[in-house]
Design brief:
InterPro entries: DUF72, UPF0759_sf
Shape: globular
Helix content: 25-40%
Number of domains: 2
Number of strands: 8
Pfam families: DUF72
Largest sheet: 3 strands, parallel
Protein name: DUF72 domain-containing protein
CATH topology of the largest domain: TIM Barrel
Structural class: alpha/beta
Strand content: 5-15%
Organism: Actinoplanes awajinensis subsp. mycoplanecinus
Length: about 280
């Protein structure tokens, strides 16, 4: 997601052609969730455009299509996987990991399927798995035992701050019915941990809820890891600004962390012409 309507004219110029929207987003943040690939495999030309709009060290983490993860449940999707990997090949190093988001019904009894799937994947990519079945969190060692030997990461989706108190806005009420209730999990299995965090509409509550992650991410950086953090709110209207704020808070603890890129200034509208 890099072209939210509420960002246009506020964080990014408006109007912008579709082939420039990712470039504008990349002026604010250096990573993005590749949600679009979850719903449809893009043409190679589209992935090449994404690469052209971003620096080689930009992190675009594409999700493996839901046809493979949710409909086929990691079994029998060899043709779809081959087409997907070919489509994203133009991203090169920008595809810093491939995201395997699994349905809530995919539980510990399916670990054998996950293990076999991971072992068939090419070694040219890193992989990260997001699970939503509560039993994985009650007894995490079984999943860790599958992921760690294969250098695959476990992506936590921390919604504890969001579900701490009842919703207070339309956006929060909508998210309340759609987002999973997930615990906070801060154990990294690899040198490239990935975190998802969901806050509230209230900025102060969002910032208060992410404070444990500031300390965790700073600790990972001191250990030599290279984490990626994705920050969400129910409407995501302020997400680019909040992401930069989180990054700045981590830099207070780890001053050697490079700053994020400086966004290009938005164009100033011409003043109306007058006779005097």
């Amino acid at each position: 997601m890099w072209s939210l309507k509420s960002w246009q004219g506020r964080f990014t110029p408006h109007p912008l052609p579709s082939g420039e929207k990712l470039r504008a987003y990349a002026g604010w943040c250096n990573a993005v969730e590749g949600n679009t690939t979850f719903y449809a495999i893009p043409p190679r030309e589209t992935a090449a455009s994404w690469a052209q709009q971003t620096a080689p060290d930009f992190r675009l983490i594409p999700k493996i299509p839901k046809r493979i993860t949710h409909e086929l449940r990691l079994s029998g999707g060899e043709d779809e996987l081959r087409i997907f990997l070919d489509a994203i090949e133009p991203l090169g190093p920008r595809a810093s990991a491939l995201w395997i988001q699994l349905p809530g019904s995919f539980g510990p009894d399916d670990l054998g399927v996950l293990s076999r799937f991971l072992r068939t994947l090419p070694l040219s990519f890193r992989y990260a798995v997001e699970v939503r079945h509560p039993d994985f969190f009650a007894a995490p060692r079984a999943l860790e035992a599958v992921l760690a030997p294969l250098r695959a990461e476990w992506i936590p989706f921390d919604t504890t701050a969001f579900f701490d108190t009842p919703p207070t806005s339309d956006a929060e009420r909508d998210a309340w019915t759609k987002k999973p209730r997930m615990p906070r999990r801060d154990t990294a299995l690899t040198d490239h941990p990935i975190v998802r965090y969901l806050g509230r509409d209230d900025t102060a509550r969002t910032v208060a809820g992410w404070q444990p992650w500031v300390a965790t991410v700073a600790g990972w950086l001191r250990e030599g890891r290279s984490p990626t953090v994705f920050l969400h709110t129910p409407d995501n209207a302020d997400a680019p600004e909040l992401a930069r704020r989180f990054h700045d808070e981590v830099r207070v603890l780890v001053p050697e962390l490079p700053a994020l890129p400086e966004p290009a200034p938005l164009p100033v509208e011409d003043e109306p012409l007058t006779l005097f």
